[in-house]
Amino acid sequence: CSREDMGGGGPDGQAYTLTVGVDDYLSGSGTVGGDTGPQRIGACIFRDGKLAEIFPELGRVGGGYSVAPESRSGTMYVLGDCSAVLDPGSLEIGMSEDRWLATVTGTEEAVMYYTGSVTLDGSGGSSLPVTLTRGLARFDLELRTSAPASVGMVTFSGVMDRAFVFPQSTVSSPQGSVPGERTVSFGTPPAESTSGIAYLYEQSGKDLAVTVSASIGGSAYVRTVALPEQIKRNTVYSIIVSQDASSSGIELEVVEWGEGSSDLVPDLGTRITVDSGRSTLSEGVEISSDGLVVAMPYTDADCILALDCSEEIECVTAPGDGVTVE
Q: What does the pLDDT read at residue 316?
């Protein structure tokens, strides 16, 4: 934003404190380093459907930001870290509010920004609270494998090159948007679940997909799966790479955080041990002193094993391994 006349303050020259909060993710996930909140705040005020005042950057005061509107009327749009998505030259005093709300951005790299608004009409006191919403969707990587795994590359395809800066009545992409690819490469391939590996603009499209290149147990895999047709701002999506002990391949799925299957996820950081004192062993069955190894004879053997673990367990056996669980 740019403003030639910053004005002389609010009524009777009074400045007001804008207290800014950030809305929770729609899917309930927590924040990570790239989406905890804005570093810079600007504002624009519309009165009677026209742009009346522009505040390029508000100064900090106490626990908020100082703003001095010419009058307590109209709607104030509050912008956080918006320099990458808004062209300052496109803002003119007198521009229509409808044109403002239809503002389109297009950048090669999606950079987190925040938007919100507050009605000034009838507001009293010296504080103006406003809640901002993130303009991007976040993608997390979730590894659910029993063998060591790492991800070397994630490629999004069908991703639109343009997006609406502000929320629309329905999730949509601007007319004339062109789909393309965006590749996320890692200097050090993540070997554990990682939050915030990528951020995308809100958009809609039938050809949205993601391809993951992964190494699991020393074997290389490449899998592609469709993304939801609507990618919503302020929402977290999980890219889940999974493999169980009985499978020679991997599964890939993308779900909105908090949704998806209720399958149990192994806690690979905690070992399951056998309590020899509470187990019933047949002849020839031995348990190691640390409870981690059960040695079975080559002949048939039945035993009852008492397992020590912190949570529920699910036993998965591989076909043809000669082990049955009842």
A: 54
Residue type, 100: W
Among 83-92, 163-172, 208-217, 218-227, the range scoring the smallest mean pLDDT is 83-92
This prediction's pTM:
0.75
Alpha-carbon distance values, 141 to 126, 236, 277, 287 (Å): 44, 11, 41, 37
Least confident range from 16-25, 57-66, 280-289: namely 280-289
The pLDDT of 104-128, averaged and rounded, is 86
Strands 149-160 and 127-134: unpaired
* Alpha carbons 133 and 167: distance in angstroms, whole number: 9
**Separation between Cα atoms, residue 25 and residue 106, nearest integer Å:** 23
User: For residue 179, with 0-12 CB atoms within 10 Å meaning exposed, 13-18 middle and 19 or more buried, which class applies?
Assistant: middle
At residue 118's C-alpha, the angle toward residues 112 and 121, to 5°, is 165
Burial of 89 (0-12, 13-18, 19+ CB in 10 A): exposed
